[in-house]
Design goal:
The complex is a heterotrimer of chains A (about 240), B (about 260) and C (about 240). Chain A has about 240 residues and is mostly helical. Chain A has helices at about 1-40, 45-60, 65-75, 80-85, 85-90, 95-120, 125-130, 135-165, 180-190, 190-220, 225-230, 230-235. Chain A has a single domain (about 30-235), classed as MetI-like (MetI-like fold). In chain A, helix 1 runs antiparallel to helix 2, helix 5 packs across helix 6 (about 95-120) and helix 6 packs across helix 8. The longest helix of chain A has about 40 residues, at about 1-40. Chain C has a single domain, classed as MetI-like (MetI-like fold), CATH 1.10.3720. Classes of the chains: A mainly alpha (about 240), B alpha/beta (about 260), C mainly alpha (about 240). Chains in contact: A-B, A-C, B-C.
Chain lengths: ~240, ~260, ~240
Amino acid sequence: MWDLIQQSVPRLMSGLIVTVVLTGLSALAGFHLGLGLALMRLSGSRVAAGFAKAYSTLFRGTPLLVQLFLFYYGLGEFAFIRDTPALWWLFSEGSRCAVLALALNTAAYTSEILRGGLMSVPAGVTEAAQACGMSKWLAFRRIVFPLALRQALPAYGNELILIAKGSSLASTITVLEITGHAKRLMSQTYAIFEVFAIAGAIYLLFNLVLTGAVRLLEWRLMRHTRPLTGAGIAAAPAAA
Amino acid sequence: MKLKLFSLLACLALGPTMAAAAGTLAIGTEGEYPPWSMADANGNVTGFDADVGAMLCKKLEMDCRFVVQAFDGLIPALKAKQFDVIISGMSITKKRLEEINFSVGYAELANMVVVPKGSDLADIKDIPTLLEKMAGHKVGVQAGTTHAHFMEKKAPGADLRTYDTLDQMEIDLANGRIDAGFADVSALQDFLKKPDGANFQLVDVNINSSYDDSLGMGIGVGIRKDDTELKGKIDKALCELIADGSIAKSSQKWFGMDISRPCQ
Amino acid sequence: MEFGFANVWRDGWVGAILQGAALTVAVGVLAMLMGLVIGTVFGLIKWRRVPVLEWAVDLYTTVVRGVPELLIIYLLFFSSVEFVTNVARAFGFADLAQGGFAFIVAVVAIGAIASAYATEVIRGALAAIPKGHVEAARALGLPGGRIFRRIIAPQMLRIAVPGLNNVWQTTIKDTALVSVTGLAELMRVSYVGAGSTRHPFIFYVIAAAVYLAITLISQTGFDLAERLLRLRQRG
């Protein structure tokens, strides 16, 4: 058992770095895309709202694995993608393809979460800000967005964990993150249960750290409510 | 599918009274490894291994039933009695012998490296140079195979990419995502014959099991360790099939050459 | 480029894809049923704060929801083969275990995941039932079983429907992951078709479309259920 731990833990840890990078990049890109989509949904433009709605339906209605294979194997079929250096840079490597698929996927869920957050901001708040002479953009940046974010944070924390877990699918397109290493270790050692249990524990720790970080952020953002409600966290209804 | 579900439910209801059909040999096979084992859209298995299985069943006077399963799941499933034997182009290796038993080897194939025409690896003529020059190249192998184990052991500098099926590795070769692929010569020749394989060639270096024992000792039928009686019967039947040329004949049909191995 | 449409028709893939879709739905429905049963039991344990068991349920939902679904499937599939077979054999279902192993593991794995999420939904729904209702029923001397059937369950169900809809949508999408075990459900069929025809694009587009159809149709069903439950509440 000790031998197995010595053999597997260092490799799974190097996989953890890849998992963290995949998760971080996908979340970063996915958040901005999701925000854009949420704003399109609420923009009042029928075309923009329709596009954002269709996007969300499409990506939330199909499994991530299908999306990943469609991007990796499916798009690799097209000569023009292989012949365009910029596109091929993106699609030639499993890890980049995984970030792309994860980012596009989480963008759909994030857009729903942020839309819920944005809609929860009372119209009066925006009106008041504008009455104070803030431009629409300034009011959004300084007033509406922070309020919406605060509202959306618990649900977004769950989404972050879904991204981290979803990144395990990258192993199916040759990326050696935690699950990829675990599979390889499995066929080398046949210590199936042990290897997957260690890998699972690493994911669990990573997700606990993520949850903790989000809680901390939430606690900071809810500072103003603390003296009133006692516990800031409990006051935030989980918007899903 | 509905039928299958109904029969599943029927099994649930009738389970205790239903006895397993006497004299059925359940064979685990990958089903995605031409020309060894190919399952079609309806789940029928054809190929060299299907032939070997059918011939074996005939000798043993049993009915054959094929169970299709991902290659790296075959050994765990055999141990759990999901089927009685593995016939899936599986090489006999020391590592696998720790888990399961094997029949006598019935076939043996050289392994080769496939590269795009004009690759810097294309003209190498010996194994050590080839392995050394592979460093920094993206090399595709199938997960859980002797090829994967060999590359991990002998070419640590290579950027190894593992695929669940050989088909996927070939797709990535053709797309140019990887620089080389390592597999047995039959599978690679199959690839070269397809439109995708037109711009590829084999590196003229035969990597035999004699070079390193991680490549195994021929291809055998996987059997559970405690099934000594079955192993005795299968060994005997295989030796007869090798001796009378039946396996050589089927091998000619699927590979265009005789890959049968003398019974030892 | 012709995308390989011809291959899809010619080589009988349409039938295989439809069969795969049926299997996907079968795995999804059975897993969801398992999730509902276990989720209700676990949800009740958390709601009633049953000592010790409550912690066990917490541990279960934390672990299952914190570990990738793919890993859970690998773990169950590759390492439980023996366990599942032995259990099946002990109950005299050896034949079933042999033929339908991949199917059983698929349902158990996806069902185990659905259970963890359903537990949270049902616990939340139970917590939302006004305490007075249960107390009133008790005061009337109704037996525990009847209180659950007549008072708790109907209210819980109504509150839980949107959450359970989410669990179902996740569950049906999670079934794609069991393709790694070789079970010929929709994703696996597409994967094999993509590999053997060398036209992955068309196969994965078709797969995506079929999944989308399944999720959209079931979404409509859930919307309807929600509306009916709300109507009954009003009447």
